[in-house]
Amino acid sequence: MPVVVIASPKGGSGKSTSAVLLGTELAHAGAQVTMLDCDPNRSLSLWGERRALPPRMTLLVDVTESDIVKTIQKHDADGGIVIVDLEGVASRLVSRAISQADLVLTPMRATTLDATIGARTLALIAEEEEALGRPIRHAVVFTMTKGIESKQHRGIEASLGGQGVDIVQPSLMERAAFSALFEFGGDLHSMPAQGRMEEAIKNASAFAQAIYQRLTEAPQ
Amino acid sequence: MSDQPKPFAVDLKQLRSRPKDTSPAAIQSVDRAGEQHGFVARETTAKRGRPPSPRTGQVHAKVLPHIADEIAAEATRRGVTQGILIEEAWALYLAQKSGK
Question: Labelling A35: which of A53, A76, A84, A157 has CA 20 to 30 A away?
Protein backbone atom coordinates (compact mmCIF):
# COMPACT_ATOMS: atom_id res chain seq x y z
CA MET A 1 0.00 0.00 0.00
CA PRO A 2 1.20 3.52 -0.62
CA VAL A 3 3.69 5.33 1.56
CA VAL A 4 3.41 9.09 1.87
CA VAL A 5 6.48 10.79 3.31
CA ILE A 6 6.04 14.34 4.58
CA ALA A 7 9.43 15.98 4.26
CA SER A 8 11.02 19.38 4.43
CA PRO A 9 14.25 20.32 6.19
CA LYS A 10 12.59 23.59 7.20
CA GLY A 11 11.08 23.62 10.68
CA GLY A 12 7.62 25.13 11.13
CA SER A 13 6.57 24.50 7.54
CA GLY A 14 3.45 22.57 8.60
CA LYS A 15 4.67 18.97 8.24
CA SER A 16 2.95 17.56 11.32
CA THR A 17 -0.27 19.48 10.71
CA SER A 18 -0.34 18.24 7.12
CA ALA A 19 0.35 14.68 8.32
CA VAL A 20 -2.46 14.73 10.88
CA LEU A 21 -4.95 16.32 8.48
CA LEU A 22 -4.11 13.85 5.73
CA GLY A 23 -4.16 10.83 8.05
CA THR A 24 -7.39 11.72 9.82
CA GLU A 25 -9.24 12.65 6.64
CA LEU A 26 -8.17 9.47 4.83
CA ALA A 27 -9.17 7.38 7.87
CA HIS A 28 -12.49 9.24 7.99
CA ALA A 29 -12.96 8.26 4.34
CA GLY A 30 -12.50 4.59 5.22
CA ALA A 31 -8.77 3.94 4.81
CA GLN A 32 -6.60 2.11 7.30
CA VAL A 33 -3.84 4.58 8.15
CA THR A 34 -0.54 4.01 9.94
CA MET A 35 1.25 7.16 11.07
CA LEU A 36 4.97 7.05 11.82
CA ASP A 37 6.29 9.77 14.11
CA CYS A 38 9.96 10.18 13.23
CA ASP A 39 10.28 13.64 14.73
CA PRO A 40 12.21 13.86 18.02
CA ASN A 41 9.87 16.72 18.94
CA ARG A 42 7.15 14.04 18.97
CA SER A 43 4.46 16.27 17.48
CA LEU A 44 2.29 13.34 16.37
CA SER A 45 2.71 11.68 19.75
CA LEU A 46 1.46 14.85 21.44
CA TRP A 47 -1.55 14.81 19.14
CA GLY A 48 -2.12 11.09 19.79
CA GLU A 49 -1.94 11.52 23.56
CA ARG A 50 -4.73 14.11 23.67
CA ARG A 51 -7.48 11.58 23.09
CA ALA A 52 -8.05 8.14 21.60
CA LEU A 53 -6.99 7.86 17.99
CA PRO A 54 -9.80 8.04 15.45
CA PRO A 55 -11.03 4.68 14.09
CA ARG A 56 -8.74 2.88 11.62
CA MET A 57 -5.66 4.83 12.73
CA THR A 58 -2.43 3.50 14.22
CA LEU A 59 0.41 5.65 15.50
CA LEU A 60 3.98 4.43 15.86
CA VAL A 61 6.43 6.64 17.69
CA ASP A 62 10.19 6.90 18.11
CA VAL A 63 11.04 5.55 14.69
CA THR A 64 14.75 6.12 14.12
CA GLU A 65 17.27 6.22 11.32
CA SER A 66 18.26 2.61 11.88
CA ASP A 67 14.73 1.16 11.81
CA ILE A 68 12.87 3.49 9.43
CA VAL A 69 13.27 1.30 6.34
CA LYS A 70 12.23 -1.88 8.14
CA THR A 71 9.28 -0.16 9.81
CA ILE A 72 7.98 1.26 6.53
CA GLN A 73 8.50 -2.07 4.80
CA LYS A 74 6.56 -3.88 7.51
CA HIS A 75 3.56 -1.55 7.36
CA ASP A 76 3.72 -1.11 3.59
CA ALA A 77 2.50 -4.69 3.35
CA ASP A 78 -0.37 -4.53 5.85
CA GLY A 79 -3.05 -3.09 3.58
CA GLY A 80 -3.18 0.52 4.79
CA ILE A 81 -1.74 3.87 3.87
CA VAL A 82 1.51 4.74 5.65
CA ILE A 83 2.17 8.39 6.47
CA VAL A 84 5.65 9.32 7.69
CA ASP A 85 6.14 12.59 9.56
CA LEU A 86 9.78 13.66 9.64
CA GLU A 87 11.84 16.09 11.64
CA GLY A 88 12.51 19.48 10.10
CA VAL A 89 16.21 18.91 9.54
CA ALA A 90 18.37 17.52 6.77
CA SER A 91 19.20 14.08 8.07
CA ARG A 92 19.89 10.53 6.93
CA LEU A 93 16.53 9.53 8.39
CA VAL A 94 14.88 11.87 5.86
CA SER A 95 16.82 10.53 2.88
CA ARG A 96 16.10 6.92 3.87
CA ALA A 97 12.38 7.59 4.33
CA ILE A 98 12.20 9.28 0.93
CA SER A 99 13.72 6.18 -0.69
CA GLN A 100 10.69 4.18 0.49
CA ALA A 101 8.03 6.67 -0.62
CA ASP A 102 5.31 6.39 -3.21
CA LEU A 103 4.70 10.09 -2.74
CA VAL A 104 6.85 12.72 -1.04
CA LEU A 105 4.84 15.69 0.09
CA THR A 106 6.71 18.89 0.92
CA PRO A 107 4.66 21.37 2.92
CA MET A 108 5.85 24.90 2.40
CA ARG A 109 4.74 28.28 3.64
CA ALA A 110 4.51 30.73 0.80
CA THR A 111 7.68 32.55 1.76
CA THR A 112 11.02 32.78 -0.01
CA LEU A 113 12.79 31.21 2.98
CA ASP A 114 10.51 28.15 3.04
CA ALA A 115 10.71 27.78 -0.72
CA THR A 116 14.51 28.00 -0.71
CA ILE A 117 14.96 25.45 2.08
CA GLY A 118 12.12 23.24 0.84
CA ALA A 119 13.82 23.10 -2.56
CA ARG A 120 16.61 21.08 -0.93
CA THR A 121 14.12 18.22 -0.56
CA LEU A 122 13.33 18.41 -4.25
CA ALA A 123 17.06 18.31 -5.08
CA LEU A 124 17.50 15.31 -2.78
CA ILE A 125 14.59 13.48 -4.42
CA ALA A 126 16.16 14.02 -7.85
CA GLU A 127 19.44 12.62 -6.55
CA GLU A 128 17.72 9.60 -4.99
CA GLU A 129 15.78 8.92 -8.18
CA GLU A 130 19.11 8.61 -9.93
CA ALA A 131 20.62 6.46 -7.19
CA LEU A 132 17.64 4.07 -7.09
CA GLY A 133 16.93 4.12 -10.82
CA ARG A 134 13.24 4.84 -10.30
CA PRO A 135 11.10 7.95 -10.23
CA ILE A 136 9.83 9.14 -6.84
CA ARG A 137 6.63 11.07 -7.13
CA HIS A 138 6.63 14.32 -5.18
CA ALA A 139 4.39 17.30 -4.66
CA VAL A 140 4.40 20.58 -2.79
CA VAL A 141 1.52 21.84 -0.69
CA PHE A 142 1.39 25.43 0.48
CA THR A 143 0.44 25.73 4.13
CA MET A 144 -0.91 28.45 6.38
CA THR A 145 -2.11 30.36 3.35
CA LYS A 146 -4.44 33.35 3.57
CA GLY A 147 -7.74 33.95 1.83
CA ILE A 148 -6.04 36.44 -0.47
CA GLU A 149 -2.81 35.16 -1.98
CA SER A 150 0.19 37.42 -1.55
CA LYS A 151 2.33 38.51 -4.47
CA GLN A 152 5.15 36.43 -3.00
CA HIS A 153 2.90 33.36 -2.90
CA ARG A 154 1.92 33.77 -6.53
CA GLY A 155 5.54 34.29 -7.52
CA ILE A 156 6.78 31.16 -5.73
CA GLU A 157 3.91 29.07 -7.08
CA ALA A 158 4.58 30.26 -10.64
CA SER A 159 8.29 29.58 -10.24
CA LEU A 160 7.77 26.03 -8.94
CA GLY A 161 5.08 25.32 -11.51
CA GLY A 162 7.43 26.53 -14.23
CA GLN A 163 9.99 23.96 -13.07
CA GLY A 164 7.42 21.20 -13.39
CA VAL A 165 6.82 20.81 -9.65
CA ASP A 166 3.45 19.26 -8.82
CA ILE A 167 1.54 21.67 -6.57
CA VAL A 168 -1.35 20.29 -4.54
CA GLN A 169 -4.59 22.21 -4.82
CA PRO A 170 -6.11 23.32 -2.55
CA SER A 171 -3.42 24.67 -0.26
CA LEU A 172 -3.92 24.29 3.48
CA MET A 173 -5.18 27.58 4.81
CA GLU A 174 -4.35 29.07 8.17
CA ARG A 175 -7.21 27.75 10.29
CA ALA A 176 -7.80 27.75 14.03
CA ALA A 177 -9.18 24.22 13.73
CA PHE A 178 -5.96 22.91 12.19
CA SER A 179 -3.73 24.13 14.99
CA ALA A 180 -6.34 23.06 17.57
CA LEU A 181 -5.87 19.41 16.50
CA PHE A 182 -2.79 19.39 18.72
CA GLU A 183 -4.83 20.75 21.62
CA PHE A 184 -7.80 18.39 21.38
CA GLY A 185 -6.42 15.38 19.49
CA GLY A 186 -8.73 13.25 17.32
CA ASP A 187 -9.94 14.66 14.03
CA LEU A 188 -11.79 17.70 12.75
CA HIS A 189 -15.07 15.78 12.81
CA SER A 190 -14.95 15.01 16.53
CA MET A 191 -13.34 18.20 17.81
CA PRO A 192 -15.27 21.05 19.47
CA ALA A 193 -15.95 23.74 16.86
CA GLN A 194 -13.02 26.08 16.28
CA GLY A 195 -13.50 29.12 14.09
CA ARG A 196 -15.11 28.41 10.75
CA MET A 197 -15.24 24.66 11.24
CA GLU A 198 -17.13 23.74 8.09
CA GLU A 199 -14.65 25.62 5.94
CA ALA A 200 -11.77 23.90 7.72
CA ILE A 201 -13.29 20.46 7.14
CA LYS A 202 -13.95 21.31 3.50
CA ASN A 203 -10.35 22.45 3.05
CA ALA A 204 -8.85 19.39 4.76
CA SER A 205 -11.13 16.98 2.90
CA ALA A 206 -10.31 18.51 -0.49
CA PHE A 207 -6.59 18.36 0.35
CA ALA A 208 -6.88 14.67 1.32
CA GLN A 209 -8.81 13.93 -1.88
CA ALA A 210 -6.08 15.61 -3.94
CA ILE A 211 -3.48 13.35 -2.30
CA TYR A 212 -5.72 10.28 -2.63
CA GLN A 213 -6.07 11.06 -6.34
CA ARG A 214 -2.28 10.97 -6.70
CA LEU A 215 -2.11 7.68 -4.82
CA THR A 216 -4.56 6.06 -7.22
CA GLU A 217 -2.63 7.01 -10.34
CA ALA A 218 -0.28 4.45 -11.85
CA PRO A 219 3.34 4.79 -10.70
CA GLN A 220 5.37 6.94 -13.09
CA MET B 1 -29.48 22.21 3.93
CA SER B 2 -26.13 21.46 5.45
CA ASP B 3 -23.10 23.07 3.91
CA GLN B 4 -21.10 19.99 4.93
CA PRO B 5 -18.95 18.75 2.04
CA LYS B 6 -19.88 15.43 0.52
CA PRO B 7 -17.55 12.94 2.20
CA PHE B 8 -15.34 11.01 -0.14
CA ALA B 9 -14.69 7.33 0.31
CA VAL B 10 -11.34 5.66 -0.10
CA ASP B 11 -11.38 2.58 -2.33
CA LEU B 12 -8.38 0.55 -1.20
CA LYS B 13 -8.37 -1.38 -4.46
CA GLN B 14 -7.64 1.83 -6.35
CA LEU B 15 -4.50 2.64 -4.36
CA ARG B 16 -1.24 2.11 -6.20
CA SER B 17 2.09 1.27 -4.68
CA ARG B 18 5.36 0.12 -6.14
CA PRO B 19 7.91 -2.29 -4.71
CA LYS B 20 10.80 -0.56 -2.97
CA ASP B 21 14.39 -1.65 -2.85
CA THR B 22 15.42 -2.18 0.77
CA SER B 23 18.70 -3.95 0.08
CA PRO B 24 21.76 -2.70 1.97
CA ALA B 25 23.30 -1.64 -1.35
CA ALA B 26 20.27 0.50 -2.22
CA ILE B 27 20.25 2.10 1.25
CA GLN B 28 23.97 2.83 0.96
CA SER B 29 23.49 4.57 -2.36
CA VAL B 30 20.59 6.57 -0.88
CA ASP B 31 22.80 7.56 2.08
CA ARG B 32 25.51 8.72 -0.31
CA ALA B 33 23.01 10.72 -2.36
CA GLY B 34 21.68 12.32 0.83
CA GLU B 35 25.14 13.25 2.10
CA GLN B 36 25.79 15.21 -1.07
CA HIS B 37 22.90 17.48 -0.11
CA GLY B 38 23.74 17.70 3.59
CA PHE B 39 21.31 14.98 4.70
CA VAL B 40 23.74 13.31 7.06
CA ALA B 41 23.51 11.00 10.10
CA ARG B 42 22.38 13.08 13.06
CA GLU B 43 21.41 10.47 15.58
CA THR B 44 23.78 10.05 18.48
CA THR B 45 25.68 6.82 18.29
CA ALA B 46 26.30 4.61 21.31
CA LYS B 47 29.01 5.85 23.66
CA ARG B 48 32.40 4.42 22.92
CA GLY B 49 34.45 2.58 25.48
CA ARG B 50 33.68 0.24 28.32
CA PRO B 51 30.09 0.32 29.59
CA PRO B 52 29.73 1.42 33.22
CA SER B 53 30.10 -1.37 35.76
CA PRO B 54 27.04 -2.45 37.75
CA ARG B 55 29.39 -2.98 40.74
CA THR B 56 28.78 0.24 42.57
CA GLY B 57 28.84 -1.13 46.13
CA GLN B 58 32.03 -0.84 48.13
CA VAL B 59 33.48 -2.76 51.07
CA HIS B 60 36.13 -1.36 53.35
CA ALA B 61 38.24 -4.39 54.11
CA LYS B 62 41.73 -4.42 55.57
CA VAL B 63 43.44 -7.78 55.35
CA LEU B 64 46.91 -9.06 56.16
CA PRO B 65 49.50 -7.91 53.58
CA HIS B 66 50.21 -11.37 52.15
CA ILE B 67 46.43 -12.03 51.70
CA ALA B 68 46.10 -8.71 49.88
CA ASP B 69 48.99 -9.72 47.61
CA GLU B 70 47.44 -13.13 46.91
CA ILE B 71 44.00 -11.64 46.09
CA ALA B 72 45.59 -9.09 43.75
CA ALA B 73 47.68 -11.78 42.02
CA GLU B 74 44.68 -14.09 41.57
CA ALA B 75 42.54 -11.26 40.15
CA THR B 76 45.32 -10.36 37.71
CA ARG B 77 45.77 -14.00 36.71
CA ARG B 78 42.05 -14.39 35.95
CA GLY B 79 41.65 -10.96 34.43
CA VAL B 80 38.87 -9.93 36.80
CA THR B 81 38.53 -7.28 39.46
CA GLN B 82 39.20 -8.02 43.12
CA GLY B 83 35.51 -7.31 43.73
CA ILE B 84 34.56 -10.41 41.75
CA LEU B 85 36.76 -12.56 43.99
CA ILE B 86 35.09 -11.08 47.04
CA GLU B 87 31.64 -11.79 45.52
CA GLU B 88 32.66 -15.41 44.91
CA ALA B 89 34.06 -15.74 48.41
CA TRP B 90 30.82 -14.31 49.80
CA ALA B 91 28.74 -16.77 47.77
CA LEU B 92 30.85 -19.64 49.16
CA TYR B 93 30.42 -18.30 52.67
CA LEU B 94 26.63 -18.11 52.27
CA ALA B 95 26.51 -21.62 50.82
CA GLN B 96 28.62 -22.94 53.66
CA LYS B 97 26.50 -21.13 56.20
CA SER B 98 23.28 -22.58 54.84
CA GLY B 99 24.84 -26.05 54.85
CA LYS B 100 24.58 -26.64 51.08
Answer: A157
